[in-house]
């Protein structure tokens, strides 16, 4: 039973049966994420000071200008995950190819692969708006003791054993699921400890917030245009309120607490949308569903999609289940 204000460490021990594999493995995984998040939080809080602001001068595989904090967060999470001797491979937004955990005996027993977005909402780093980190964890499917393979990462989202995000906002929170509900822990910066502040987080079935970059409106499919018009129409509990931070983690976190829908549809500019299936959509979809919400690409359940590439993009509709169903209703009126 989740008790408010218990520490993350106590919670993991008390709820060890929630994890389908050994609790020791889960705590080592979560502990490495917890540690890296504290180090990134420390740097995020300095954003605005010269040494941590701006471009790192590199372009990542997605053609994005890597920010210094993207690189710092990427290096920090890779280092802590590697040290714990539990992960055999890492896929990151900031690395072209997946990373095979080297240097340990080839027959190491590491059984997990992690896909991650080390710094989500990069465009908001220098303007003091909340950003995040997103992680998705799978059990490898290739034999333990052999080098990790691409297929270990291209598992459908419904095979995730754990997923979550860290939000670096007015406070720093770690929110995660192992398939038994969603719990949120707030970092007490002076003690350096996370405490259970949001037990059993749930998405209200309905809400009155819609989150989409309306600047792309003219490029959206007709179904999306119709749904946005529906949200803006004066009728019943509408019009809804438009809220868009431009950090996926922050927009979904707010909508999970207040009720709402986040959309990053495909458009004539971005044929498959912008968000990446492995380390943005799958983990946020797992969280959303575990909190009673839902997530689709406008037609199909995100968690049932079979990934084909590490950095593939998919259209994303996520949030209060009745709002996602309504958006899908408009989408399915038109051919895909
Ligand atoms: O500026 P746009 O096109 O609305 O995109 C905003 C979206 O892109 C992202 O910043 C993509 O994530 P990264 O910052 O990790 O690349 C999301 O967090 C956000 O929801
Ligand atoms: Mg992102
Ligand atoms: Mg990112």
TrEMBL record:
Record protein name field: Fructose-1,6-bisphosphatase class 1
Family of this protein: Belongs to the FBPase class 1 family.
Chain positions recorded as Mg(2+) 1 binding sites: 93, 117, 119
InterPro entries: FBPase_C_dom (IPR044015), FBPase_class-1 (IPR000146), FBPase_N (IPR033391), FBPtase (IPR028343), Fructose_bisphosphatase_AS (IPR020548)
A single BP term in Gene Ontology: fructose 1,6-bisphosphate metabolic process
Record-level GO cellular component terms: cytosol
Subunit structure: Homotetramer.
PANTHER family: FRUCTOSE-1,6-BISPHOSPHATASE-RELATED, SEDOHEPTULOSE-1,7-BISPHOSPHATASE, CHLOROPLASTIC
GO molecular function: fructose 1,6-bisphosphate 1-phosphatase activity; magnesium ion binding
Pfam families linked: FBPase, FBPase_C
Domain of life, source organism: Bacteria
Organismal lineage: Bacteria, Pseudomonadati, Bacteroidota, Flavobacteriia, Flavobacteriales
Pathway(s) of this molecule: Carbohydrate biosynthesis; Calvin cycle
Limits of the Fructose-1-6-bisphosphatase class I N-terminal domain: 7-199
Binding site for substrate: 120-123, 213, 244, 274
Domain Fructose-1-6-bisphosphatase class 1 C-terminal per the UniProt entry, residue ranges: 204-331
Cofactor remark from the record: Binds 2 magnesium ions per subunit.
Cofactor(s) needed for function: Mg(2+)
Gene3D superfamilies according to UniProt: 3.40.190.80, Fructose-1,6-Bisphosphatase, subunit A, domain 1
Keyword Ligase: no
Entry's localization field: Cytoplasm
Residues noted as binding Mg(2+) 2 in the record, renumbered to the chain: 117, 120, 280
Principal subcellular localization: cytoplasm
Alphabetic keyword roster: Carbohydrate metabolism, Cytoplasm, Hydrolase, Magnesium, Metal-binding
Catalytic activity from the UniProt record: beta-D-fructose 1,6-bisphosphate + H2O = beta-D-fructose 6-phosphate + phosphate
Enzyme Commission number(s) from the entry: 3.1.3.11
Organism: Nonlabens xylanidelens
């Amino acid at each position: 039973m989740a008790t408010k204000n218990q520490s993350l460490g106590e919670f993991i021990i008390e709820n060890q049966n929630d994890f389908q594999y050994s609790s020791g493995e889960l705590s080592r995984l979560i502990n490495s994420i917890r540690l890296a998040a504290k180090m990134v939080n420390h740097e995020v809080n300095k954003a605005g000071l010269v040494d941590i602001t701006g471009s790192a001068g590199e372009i990542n595989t997605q053609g994005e200008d890597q920010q210094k904090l993207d690189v710092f967060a990427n290096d920090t999470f890779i280092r802590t995950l590697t040290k714990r001797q539990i992960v055999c491979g890492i896929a990151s937004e900031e690395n072209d190819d997946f990373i095979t955990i080297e240097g340990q005996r080839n027959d190491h027993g590491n059984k997990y692969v992690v896909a991650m977005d080390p710094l989500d909402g990069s465009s908001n780093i220098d303007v003091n708006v909340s950003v995040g980190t997103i992680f998705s964890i799978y059990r490898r499917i290739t034999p333990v003791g052999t080098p990790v393979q691409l297929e270990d990462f291209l598992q459908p989202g419904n095979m995730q054993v754990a997923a979550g995000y860290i939000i670096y906002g007015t406070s720093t929170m770690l929110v995660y699921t192992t398939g038994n509900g969603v719990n949120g822990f707030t970092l007490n910066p002076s003690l350096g400890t996370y405490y259970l502040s949001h037990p059993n987080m749930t998405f209200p079935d309905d809400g009155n917030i819609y989150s989409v970059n309306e600047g792309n409106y003219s490029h959206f499919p007709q179904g999306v245009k119709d749904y946005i018009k529906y949200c803006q129409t004066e009728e019943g509990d509408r019009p809804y309120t438009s809220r868009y931070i431009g950090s996926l983690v922050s927009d979904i976190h707010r909508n999970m607490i207040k009720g709402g829908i986040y959309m990053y549809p495909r458009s004539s500019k971005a044929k498959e949308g912008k968000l990446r299936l492995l380390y943005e959509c799958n983990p946020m979809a797992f969280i959303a569903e575990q909190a009673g919400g839902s997530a689709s690409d406008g037609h199909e359940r995100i968690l049932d999609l079979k990934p084909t590439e590490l950095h593939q993009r998919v259209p994303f509709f996520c949030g209060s289940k009745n709002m996602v169903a309504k958006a899908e209703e408009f989408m399915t009126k038109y051919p895909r």
